[in-house]
Amino acid sequence: MALITCSFHSEVLRTSTAMTVALPHPHPPAAHDTKPPPVLYLLHGLGDDETSWTRNSSIERHAAEAGIAVVMPRACRSFYTDEHHGSRYWTFLTAELPELVARLFRLSGRRQDTYVAGLSMGGYGAMRWALHHPERFAAAASLSGVLDVAHPTARQLLDQAVPHAFGPNELAGTDHDLLARLSTRRPGEELRLYIGCGTEDFTYPSNRRFADRARAAGWQVTEAFAPGNHQWGYWDTAIRDVLGWLRGPAAGSRAA
Questions:
Q1: Using N-to-C axis directions, what is the helix angle for 232-246 and 59-66, rounded to 10°?
Q2: b/e for 240-255, b at 16 or more Cβ within 10 A?
Q3: pLDDT for 71-128, tens place per residue?
Q4: Helix, strand, coil % (nearest 5) of the chain?
Q5: DSSP-derived 3-state class of residue 10
Q6: What span, in angstroms and rounded, lies between the C-alpha atoms of 56 and 121?
Q7: Which secondary structure element, helix H or strand E, spans residue 116, and what is its range?
Q8: Cα separation of 124 and 160, whole Å?
Q9: Does the reported pTM lie above 0.90?
Q10: Is the bond preceding 163 in cis, omega lying within 30 degrees of 0?
């Protein structure tokens, strides 16, 4: 893998920001190998940054084995939203970032080669992005995601941790409410979902609710609930499993 730290100015955020990108290369290099690799947008959690996955997990090694490029952007404590008081991180993530990545790196732009995943806050961001733009992704994965932000318990924690992100507005039934979005699945929306969480994790009940609601609404869901807590020891193992799931038989053919 080639590991790149890319600093750049964001017009949407109106400030400098950064992303870490892991790029695979063939072993041994082959002159005739011209197919661009698939790409995973991998989102960090609250209090982390674009370096967290590479510092705390073996994502570089796992991605090399899977032959997949990984884009890890910085999102601060935004909850991947256009913040009520702050910056437009949702617009940055869903509009500006993919365009920049396409200009800077030679990666596949096909839907069947494009994935999104994240942990905790990033699990929420990944599922929100995929559910609102299923035409962009073949699959999405959440690890210990904060997936039911409208639930009173989650809302209380969010109001304490990130009051600037959502503000005082009601979240139930809005674009922020992932469970509401699951229930409005439109005909023809095909998207594989992976919901992973440790059974000792404080987010486990909301992950269980999300998985049940998604399956009832007709989404294709893979559950991965196993002993574990809200920590990197669990996520390092889980992201390896996610990469195998992304590129497994259910992913379909990459033929042109």
A1: 10
A2: bbbbebbbeeebeeee
A3: 999 999 999 999 999 999 999 999 999 999 999 999 999 999 999 999 999 999 999 9
A4: 35, 20, 40
A5: strand
A6: 16
A7: strand 114-119
A8: 17
A9: yes
A10: no
